[in-house]
Amino acid sequence: MERLDVLKLVLLPLLLAAVAVQGAVKHYDWTIDYDFWSPDCVEKLIISINGQYPGPTIDATVGDTIIVKIHNKLPTESVVIHWHGIRQRGTPWADGAAFVSQCPVAPEDEYTYQFVVDNAGTYFYHGHHGMQRAAGFYGSLIVRPKAGTVEPFQYDDELSIIVNDWWHKSVHDQERGLYSNPFRWVGEPQSLLIEGRGAYNCSLVPVGAVPNSGDCVTCNASAPQCQPYVLPVTAGKTYRLRIASVASLSALNFILEGHNMTVVEADGNYVEPVVVDNLDLYSGESYSVLFTANQDPTRNYWAGLNVRGRKPLTPTGLAILNYLPNPSTLLPTTPTPVSPLWNDYNLSLAQAQQIKAHSSLEIPFNEWSGSDRTISLLNTQNKLNGVNKWAINNVTLVPLSTPYLAVYTYKKLKKVLSATPPPPLTYTPGYDIFQPPVNPNTTVGSGVYEFKLNEVIDVVIQNANTLTVNASEIHPWHLHGHDFYVLGFGNGVFTSNDYDNLNYVNPPLRNTVPVFPYGWTVIRFKADNPGVWPFHCHIEPHFHMGMGVIFAEGTDLLPRIRLPAQNLGCGLTKDLIRG
Ligand SMILES: *[C@@H]1O[C@H](CO)[C@@H](O)[C@H](O)[C@H]1NC(C)=O
Ligand SMILES: *[C@@H]1O[C@H](CO)[C@@H](O)[C@H](O)[C@H]1NC(C)=O
Ligand SMILES: *[C@@H]1O[C@H](CO)[C@@H](O)[C@H](O)[C@H]1NC(C)=O
Ligand SMILES: *[C@@H]1O[C@H](CO)[C@@H](O)[C@H](O)[C@H]1NC(C)=O
Ligand SMILES: *[C@@H]1O[C@H](CO)[C@@H](O)[C@H](O)[C@H]1NC(C)=O
Ligand SMILES: *[C@@H]1O[C@H](CO)[C@@H](O)[C@H](O)[C@H]1NC(C)=O
Ligand SMILES: *[C@@H]1O[C@H](CO)[C@@H](O)[C@H](O)[C@H]1NC(C)=O
Ligand SMILES: [Cu+2]
User: Fold this and answer.
1) What is the span of the domain harbouring residue 408?
2) Candidate from 172-181, 207-216, 514-523 with smallest mean pLDDT
3) What atom in ligand 3 is closest to the CA of residue 260?
């Protein structure tokens, strides 16, 4: 309580806002361990929570306080959990980003997350240390509106899925390959999973493989863990389907065979209804779509997931849309869903541009009177002593080994920042985004962009060619601690003329947004949430290879925060604990 008292003086308005919506207190007790699992019929080690994969769903109501006590039983790895899309207003230490908001929790240690969920919507949580998300360390977090609050759409019942891509190699194998020279790439995923379930073709296992012999893959097509996920529906009813992507690498496309979907929510914010027959999903995004079970009820249908944005080498991930009372085992005899061409980026761009804020939402731009500052972030692929990296304005992020939040709350630690300026506010004019870099060498940095409280920030994310001729990739950018307005997308180089054509009328609020190949994306947000927040590409290997920046907001106020002791203990914060 003492910590809260100190904070109250500083962040009184924020805290009052939190208190005003306070509801139930929900306690969770989670044990994190490795488990043998067969998500796509091939057995491997996954990170489980209470022996479950995906992890338990948190189902809460706006204003609830969520308290999650975690026990790390991984024998040799530290963990954190990031609550993706939860703004953590007044609780920046509970964001769960390793070495940004806290020290990772060591084996056999415990940590208790406590935060308020203040906005209804579809969210999720996942590991945010190393590549643990790709090891299966994730689950759903659903926040419902308070009783009496009317949502701008109606439905009879609700379904929920979380999707990802899946490799048979361990994440450690993948991770080590990323910084090998020469580069060792794990390749495209073997499977796409819907709610943790897929189906690798066991006939592809090397001839002569003996299950459980220790030298080959164990693949069992009958394993209960890899039977397709079932979405049960009753003819005539309308469903809200919540969909979230925690993919490690792939942009995905979701199809409900024979059924259109109406997008009504994106990243926890209501949007104007958009009817689609296929939905692009970038890692870190979530949606609610409505669909009506209005097709021939005597059969079942496929729910299908395909790769977009990379040449697909992974079969369609499948779940069953099960019209009751048909048995869920009645497999459709129709072909599995086919998505638009993987590299038809204009189609993806057009779909992204269709997502607009719901008309009931007020866009407070007049109040903000434009932006105070613009930051341009050039996304390039580079080399550092022969090792592949990603860079932002020629700086590859190598996070500090002392949590940034501690650096800002304890003045005596501030010295570690002085040596590492952030990437420049803008990149070299005239950089040719259509060619591989002339000089691919990047520099490393761990610097921070500092914002005064309530500064309005525009960020121009500019994509470019990778190290390979005629190649540019999609990057879904995710901001912690905020939703931001997506003002626009475009092809080519962003110029000041493009400011005139941005959407100042009904830009959607999101926490994740793609930047398309050779394109740009502009976002705007107000630095009104004191804390230190990463802004990074949500592709797990890209973030690992330095594709991110760090924002510190309300830096004057941060020294007044007293961090929970459980956040400390690594890097320079070891001395704080001893002292
Ligand atoms: C599985 O792989 C085998 C061997 O390549 C192939 O003959 C078979 O058609 C595949 N099955 C499916 C369902 O793709
Ligand atoms: C495959 O899984 C099924 C269902 O659990 C089980 O009955 C069968 O014994 C397994 N086969 C092998 C070879 O392990
Ligand atoms: C889906 O929407 C399209 C375009 O609005 C329409 O042409 C089509 O008939 C719809 N399909 C179904 C199954 O409702
Ligand atoms: C995509 O759109 C851009 C700009 O409108 C256009 O120049 C380009 O030809 C389009 N590409 C394809 C493949 O249609
Ligand atoms: C890039 O760095 C490498 C060392 O890793 C060096 O050999 C090379 O000369 C550098 N290239 C340029 C253009 O500076
Ligand atoms: C990155 O730095 C190198 C060496 O200083 C320089 O040659 C190159 O043009 C820079 N790239 C960008 C995108 O600014
Ligand atoms: C560039 O790559 C795209 C695929 O992303 C391909 O369609 C196109 O033909 C390529 N262009 C050239 C000149 O190789
Ligand atoms: Cu990326």
Assistant:
1) 365-578
2) 207-216
3) 1
